[in-house]
Amino acid sequence: MQIFATVATFALAACGVAASPTPSWGNWGNSGNPNCVSRSYIEGLIAQEIVFLQHKNVTAAVAAGNAIFDANIAEYGDSINSLRGAPLGTQVEFNATSYIAETTSTPPIPQIDTLSLTVDCNQYVWQWRFYGIGPGPNPYIQGITLGKINAAGKIYYQYVEFNSLAWAENSGYKVTPPTSGPYAAPSA
Protein backbone atom coordinates (compact mmCIF):
# COMPACT_ATOMS: atom_id res chain seq x y z
CA MET A 1 0.00 0.00 0.00
CA GLN A 2 2.88 2.37 0.81
CA ILE A 3 4.36 1.88 -2.67
CA PHE A 4 1.01 2.60 -4.32
CA ALA A 5 0.69 5.88 -2.40
CA THR A 6 4.24 6.91 -3.41
CA VAL A 7 3.64 6.05 -7.09
CA ALA A 8 0.32 7.88 -7.04
CA THR A 9 1.98 10.97 -5.52
CA PHE A 10 4.67 11.02 -8.23
CA ALA A 11 2.05 10.48 -10.94
CA LEU A 12 -0.01 13.42 -9.70
CA ALA A 13 3.10 15.59 -9.45
CA ALA A 14 4.09 14.66 -12.99
CA CYS A 15 0.62 15.57 -14.25
CA GLY A 16 0.88 18.91 -12.48
CA VAL A 17 4.25 19.62 -14.05
CA ALA A 18 3.05 18.52 -17.48
CA ALA A 19 0.00 20.76 -17.19
CA SER A 20 2.07 23.79 -16.15
CA PRO A 21 2.65 26.39 -18.84
CA THR A 22 6.04 26.34 -20.52
CA PRO A 23 8.21 29.22 -19.24
CA SER A 24 9.36 31.83 -21.72
CA TRP A 25 13.14 31.84 -21.46
CA GLY A 26 13.43 34.71 -23.96
CA ASN A 27 12.74 37.21 -21.18
CA TRP A 28 14.53 35.33 -18.43
CA GLY A 29 15.46 37.72 -15.68
CA ASN A 30 12.41 39.97 -15.84
CA SER A 31 10.38 37.57 -13.67
CA GLY A 32 7.20 38.44 -15.55
CA ASN A 33 7.35 41.88 -13.98
CA PRO A 34 5.74 44.41 -16.35
CA ASN A 35 8.15 47.06 -15.03
CA CYS A 36 11.18 45.10 -16.28
CA VAL A 37 12.65 45.42 -19.75
CA SER A 38 13.16 42.40 -21.96
CA ARG A 39 16.47 40.89 -22.97
CA SER A 40 15.79 41.88 -26.57
CA TYR A 41 15.33 45.50 -25.47
CA ILE A 42 18.74 45.45 -23.74
CA GLU A 43 20.27 43.82 -26.83
CA GLY A 44 18.93 46.78 -28.85
CA LEU A 45 20.51 49.25 -26.41
CA ILE A 46 23.84 47.41 -26.65
CA ALA A 47 23.67 47.51 -30.46
CA GLN A 48 23.18 51.29 -30.28
CA GLU A 49 25.97 51.63 -27.71
CA ILE A 50 28.29 49.84 -30.13
CA VAL A 51 27.34 52.37 -32.86
CA PHE A 52 28.09 55.12 -30.33
CA LEU A 53 31.46 53.72 -29.20
CA GLN A 54 32.64 52.90 -32.72
CA HIS A 55 31.44 56.28 -34.06
CA LYS A 56 32.27 55.37 -37.64
CA ASN A 57 29.65 57.98 -38.54
CA VAL A 58 29.68 60.72 -35.88
CA THR A 59 26.16 61.90 -36.72
CA ALA A 60 24.82 58.36 -36.24
CA ALA A 61 26.87 57.95 -33.05
CA VAL A 62 25.49 61.17 -31.55
CA ALA A 63 21.95 60.10 -32.47
CA ALA A 64 22.55 56.67 -30.88
CA GLY A 65 23.94 58.26 -27.71
CA ASN A 66 20.99 60.61 -27.42
CA ALA A 67 18.57 57.73 -27.99
CA ILE A 68 19.96 55.40 -25.31
CA PHE A 69 21.44 57.60 -22.55
CA ASP A 70 19.45 59.50 -19.94
CA ALA A 71 20.30 63.22 -19.96
CA ASN A 72 21.85 62.81 -16.48
CA ILE A 73 23.71 59.54 -17.01
CA ALA A 74 26.22 58.76 -14.28
CA GLU A 75 29.22 56.68 -15.26
CA TYR A 76 31.80 55.28 -12.89
CA GLY A 77 34.84 53.09 -13.41
CA ASP A 78 38.23 52.99 -11.79
CA SER A 79 39.82 51.63 -14.97
CA ILE A 80 38.98 54.96 -16.62
CA ASN A 81 40.02 56.91 -13.52
CA SER A 82 43.39 55.12 -13.52
CA LEU A 83 44.04 56.11 -17.13
CA ARG A 84 42.96 59.71 -16.49
CA GLY A 85 44.96 60.02 -13.29
CA ALA A 86 41.76 60.73 -11.35
CA PRO A 87 41.20 59.46 -7.80
CA LEU A 88 39.60 56.03 -7.56
CA GLY A 89 35.84 56.20 -7.04
CA THR A 90 35.52 59.49 -8.89
CA GLN A 91 32.47 59.79 -11.14
CA VAL A 92 33.62 59.68 -14.76
CA GLU A 93 30.60 61.10 -16.60
CA PHE A 94 27.85 63.39 -15.27
CA ASN A 95 25.54 63.88 -18.25
CA ALA A 96 24.84 62.65 -21.75
CA THR A 97 25.90 65.87 -23.49
CA SER A 98 29.49 65.78 -22.24
CA TYR A 99 29.72 61.98 -22.46
CA ILE A 100 28.65 62.01 -26.11
CA ALA A 101 30.96 64.93 -26.97
CA GLU A 102 33.97 63.37 -25.24
CA THR A 103 33.47 59.91 -26.72
CA THR A 104 32.92 61.09 -30.30
CA SER A 105 36.05 63.26 -30.12
CA THR A 106 38.31 60.32 -29.18
CA PRO A 107 39.64 57.68 -31.58
CA PRO A 108 36.89 55.22 -32.59
CA ILE A 109 36.93 51.59 -31.51
CA PRO A 110 37.18 49.65 -34.79
CA GLN A 111 35.63 46.37 -33.60
CA ILE A 112 33.50 45.48 -30.60
CA ASP A 113 32.41 41.94 -29.79
CA THR A 114 29.87 40.94 -27.18
CA LEU A 115 31.18 37.99 -25.18
CA SER A 116 28.28 37.70 -22.75
CA LEU A 117 25.13 39.53 -21.70
CA THR A 118 23.21 38.92 -18.48
CA VAL A 119 19.91 40.73 -17.94
CA ASP A 120 18.02 41.07 -14.67
CA CYS A 121 14.90 43.23 -14.82
CA ASN A 122 16.25 46.77 -15.39
CA GLN A 123 19.95 46.14 -15.19
CA TYR A 124 22.46 44.18 -17.20
CA VAL A 125 26.08 43.09 -17.30
CA TRP A 126 27.67 43.28 -20.74
CA GLN A 127 31.03 41.57 -21.19
CA TRP A 128 32.79 42.93 -24.25
CA ARG A 129 36.03 42.82 -26.19
CA PHE A 130 37.36 45.92 -27.98
CA TYR A 131 39.84 45.45 -30.83
CA GLY A 132 42.11 48.16 -32.25
CA ILE A 133 42.74 50.28 -29.15
CA GLY A 134 45.89 52.19 -30.04
CA PRO A 135 48.95 50.83 -31.83
CA GLY A 136 50.21 48.82 -28.82
CA PRO A 137 50.99 45.12 -28.53
CA ASN A 138 47.68 43.88 -27.09
CA PRO A 139 45.28 42.57 -29.73
CA TYR A 140 42.22 43.42 -27.64
CA ILE A 141 40.98 44.96 -24.41
CA GLN A 142 38.35 43.02 -22.49
CA GLY A 143 35.95 44.38 -19.89
CA ILE A 144 32.45 44.65 -18.51
CA THR A 145 29.75 47.28 -18.24
CA LEU A 146 27.08 47.15 -15.58
CA GLY A 147 24.16 49.24 -16.83
CA LYS A 148 20.88 50.31 -15.28
CA ILE A 149 17.73 51.32 -17.16
CA ASN A 150 15.22 53.91 -15.93
CA ALA A 151 11.43 53.97 -16.39
CA ALA A 152 11.88 55.86 -19.68
CA GLY A 153 13.93 52.93 -21.02
CA LYS A 154 17.24 54.83 -21.07
CA ILE A 155 20.60 53.99 -19.54
CA TYR A 156 20.99 56.22 -16.49
CA TYR A 157 23.95 54.47 -14.83
CA GLN A 158 27.04 52.63 -16.07
CA TYR A 159 29.93 51.09 -14.18
CA VAL A 160 32.75 50.15 -16.55
CA GLU A 161 35.84 48.09 -15.77
CA PHE A 162 38.47 46.67 -18.12
CA ASN A 163 42.14 45.75 -18.42
CA SER A 164 43.43 49.29 -17.96
CA LEU A 165 47.09 48.21 -18.10
CA ALA A 166 46.61 46.73 -21.56
CA TRP A 167 44.71 49.87 -22.66
CA ALA A 168 47.49 52.07 -21.23
CA GLU A 169 50.21 50.05 -22.95
CA ASN A 170 48.36 50.25 -26.27
CA SER A 171 47.97 54.02 -25.81
CA GLY A 172 51.67 54.71 -25.27
CA TYR A 173 52.08 54.40 -21.50
CA LYS A 174 55.16 52.52 -20.34
CA VAL A 175 54.08 49.57 -18.20
CA THR A 176 57.01 48.10 -16.30
CA PRO A 177 56.48 45.31 -13.76
CA PRO A 178 58.61 45.35 -10.60
CA THR A 179 61.80 43.29 -10.64
CA SER A 180 61.39 41.95 -7.10
CA GLY A 181 58.68 41.19 -4.60
CA PRO A 182 55.41 39.29 -4.88
CA TYR A 183 54.32 41.12 -8.06
CA ALA A 184 57.63 40.78 -9.90
CA ALA A 185 57.65 39.54 -13.46
CA PRO A 186 58.41 35.81 -13.66
CA SER A 187 61.98 34.89 -14.50
CA ALA A 188 62.64 33.42 -17.91
Automatic annotation (TrEMBL):
Domain named NTF2-like is located at 35-173
* Domain of life from the UniProt record: Eukaryota
InterPro entries listed in its UniProt record: NTF2-like_dom_7
Q: Where is the signal peptide?
A: 1-19
| Keywords (A to Z) from UniProt | Signal
The yes or no answer to whether the keyword Signal is present is yes
Per its UniProt record, what Pfam families does this chain match? NTF2_7
Q: What is this protein called?
A: NTF2-like domain-containing protein
Query: Origin organism of this chain?
Result: Lithohypha guttulata
